[in-house]
Predict the structure.
Amino acid sequence: MTDVNRPPDDRIGGWTRLVTARPRLSLLIALIFTALAVVAGSGVADRMGSGGWEDPASESAYATKALEKRFPASQPNLILLVDSGRKTVDDPAVAAEGRALAKRLSDEKAVTGVTSYWATGAPSLRARDRGEAIIAARILGDESAAGKALERIAPHYRGAHGPVEVRVGGMVAVRHELQSTIQEDLLRAEMIALPITLVLLVMVFGSAVAALLPLGVGIVAILGTDAVLRGLTEFTDVSVFAQNLTTALGLGLAIDYALFIVRRFREELGRGAEKLPAVAATLRTAGRTVLFSALTVAASLAAMLVFPQYFLRSFAYAGIAVVLIAATAALVVLPAALILLGDRVNALDLTRLLRRGRPARGGEPGAGWARLARLVMRRAPVFALATVAGLVALGLPFLRVEFGTADDRQLPSSAESHMVQQHIREGFPGGPGGAVEVLAEGRGTGTKALADYSAKISALPQVLRVDSPAGRFADGRLVAEPGPAEAARLSEGSAEITVQPKGEAVDTASQDLVRTIRAQEPSFTTSATGTAAVLVDTKDSIADRLPWAAAIIVAVTLLLVFLLTGSVLIPIQAVLLNALSLTAMFGAVVWVFQDGHLSGPLSFTTSGDIETTLPVLMFCVAFGLSMDYGVFLLSRIKEEYDRTGDHQAAVEFGLRRTGGLITAAALILAVVMVGIGTSRVTNTKMLGLGIALAVLMDAMVVRGLLVPAVMKLTGRATWWAPGPLRRLHTRFGLSEGESTPAEHREGSGTDAAATGGDADDRRCGGEGGPHGEDGAHGEDGVQVEGKKTRDRVGTGH
């Protein structure tokens, strides 16, 4: 290779010197860091919570805490479902056993507020067919302490007791089963995703050595993030669900970043560069793109910090940590490994046997993507309209979305706590979880005022009955005088009032009932809580903060893409097209998980709604990942446009160079997300499968069809920016490649563009899928035979 054919810039920058000066030491430090992370992150799941969907500053959160303290029986989190078999719960033997169980439970440490059907005679604690009854109690302490107490208590009550059979349920049991199920499912997902990912990486690279590098970066990112989350649990609540995102993004983004770094390094070797200049060129180009991508993804995930629910904030903690650690490993540890490996990065060709005897395919690597780009740009209006219409149509089901709260139906139908709550929903006139609990406080909480208030609330059309210290009310009148149970609803100037709705716990009528109750103006202060009240407050909280989160994502994306491209229009296009790429995901979420289609094959129980915080989470994650691929495509288009000044050729070049690689990266990330989607927990299943769909739609439809069509329609105006912004980009902007813009360079123009504008590209080609379109394996079109990679470069050399 002559000097004229060498890469135009062999400068070794300060960052390259820093990360490659002592490569063995760098790898040793990374190994020590990983070992320490294993120790620091051990047991992190045991310290995580399985709730966090509520706004801690809301009215319902205040009322819940106050009622827990003053009236623990009003907030039961433990339920013993007592089945009387062939007898009724009023049978003397069954009643005696029920009272004995309740007495035993009240003697347990950390248990308070024990109540039962046999003590109160409350209709809500007895099944309509009189075959089952409830013993309810509250286990004190936070989620961790309550879970440990449940583990100690439950075995002594579960199973046969004389004439009855007992099953254990309640929210503390639901959360305990969620936590253990997620941990088991996460391990299974990793066992599924890792070997498949390794096989796909071998197919992409053709080399087992190159394939192991992205996996190594991913493992460092996952273990490092576990350690970060373990540290955060000392200061704040962290959701156990965040571990799923750690695994998914740790593998997915690490593989994305390593794919582009290793691909560019092999490309530089194929051009004849020595390993140190090859690493330098890689970090100046692909390295900068990785940095931009990581910042964009981190910004999308950081937007969840504006929400008060620790469920969402936990995903921000995990996402930001895993993105930054993955990018750091790709930009620090990976270059050190590449320096030590050199040409051996192409060793252990495991695909040679598959190619033996197969005739080599002709054509230039990436030619298929180039043909697609030309076809799309020739019919740009048709492709743009058809693609937009198709994506909008796929998203239409989201218009009928119903928001709800996460409950026991997140668990598989075989889970004990799910079965208990399902029996209560189907067989009881009103369970402890469906009521609206009202805390009355102040000097006006006298018996007469409470009676008037209770009668007024009971007259509302959505109300079945009201239980208060003044008695039991229905249809606006007193139906039962106060007894010992009602007297217990008074405590030091405060009272507890239970409003039992006629409908479901979180349907529209129950939510309207909460608003109606809060609109009342009695002589005392009231605060409402319960499942419906929590949902109302959560929806209001999300709606209040969603504009701020969207503004953060849009502003940071616009800024970073502008710094990458120097264009005003491209950042706007990027935001709009990325948002459009998510429509299929949101439409599928409603069609599948709300409407219940495919519930059988996917093994989940539909609740008829979508948990309120989940669309926010899915948007932030999927938008960030979409920008990840968008940055890689735009950086190559920008590089070629700067070099030739030919807009259409630059779009074709970018798609030819990145189309196959982005598709391979998206496929690998989708495999990881589908592995997460095999979870038995519905929200985790929805998260994994939904984001897998969004990633594939973005990589294959938006990047392959919509981006080239839109960029063709906008033409050279795509790159316009006013003078002050051009000067800002000249000073602060960075992009993949450091070529002088073509319009500022003497001798550039149509001649170069007419021939594709890239002699090196005709030698080394782009990505035509896992093995290129010329039969040469590897996404960079480099044929690998032992260590002499750069002596045998792709077709057309």
Notes: The first strand starts at residue 78 and ends at 83. DSSP finds 28 helices and 14 strands in the chain.
